[in-house]
Amino acid sequence: MYPEHTPRPPTERAVEVHQPTPIPPPVAHSAPVVPVQPGTVPAVASVVLPDGRVVTGYAIDAVRPEPVTAKPAVSRTAVNVALGGVGFLAVCGGLLLLTSFIAALTAFIGQLIILAAVIFGGWIAVQVLSGSGHKGGTTVNIRRAVIKRNHFHG
Fold first, then answer.
1. How far apart, in whole angstroms, are the C-alpha atoms of residue 30 and residue 72?
2. DSSP-based three-state secondary structure for 75
3. Most C-beta atoms within 10 A of its C-beta, which of 5, 6, 32, 93?
């Protein structure tokens, strides 16, 4: 298959094996658990269940939400002024858009009129300047008519 003077391809390739470097696990420094004493010792409560067993434990006070601070009253006049300003800006924006729309529509109609005038004017120019075509009326070849009348045959 291979000529004698060409080198043969190697049948086995050298393979390099890369061993991953292990990453040491992180050292967890756990903080010592220190029991915290409550500021005041809660009262011990005992409850007698219907079957006669007694359960003793600490009474837990319900968490009370912080009182909601009263919001200052907003003046009706301030609300009306703010709403009036928003309404005024909306009307001004609408009028600006309406004016822009009318101006664009007017320009569009003007361009359509100009386009129609150019097309119609071009059609008229072609009709006037074209030398060929039927102009209406009868075409008479005077020379032939004279020849036929005088019976000149050639």
1. 49
2. coil
3. 93
Specify whether the CB–CB gap between 63 and 71 falls below 8 A. Answer: no
Q: Which two tokens stand for residue 119?
A: 């097309």
Q: Which residues contact 87 (CB under 8 A, 6 or more apart)?
A: none
CA distance 147 to 151: 6
Check if the beta carbon of residue 86 is closer than 8 Å to that of residue 79: no
pLDDT at 95 over 60: yes
Task: Map tokens 């005088």 to a residue.
Answer: 150
- Residue 54: phi and psi, rounded to 5, are -115, 130
How far apart, in whole angstroms, are the C-alpha atoms of residue 152 and residue 154?
A: 6
Position 144 pLDDT exceeds 70 = no
pTM over 0.70? The answer is no
CA separation for the pair 97, 100 (Å, rounded): 5
Task: Compute the distance between CA of residue 82 and CA of residue 99 in angstroms, rounded to an integer.
Answer: 26
What are the residue ranges of helices labelled H in the chain? Answer: 76-129, 142-150
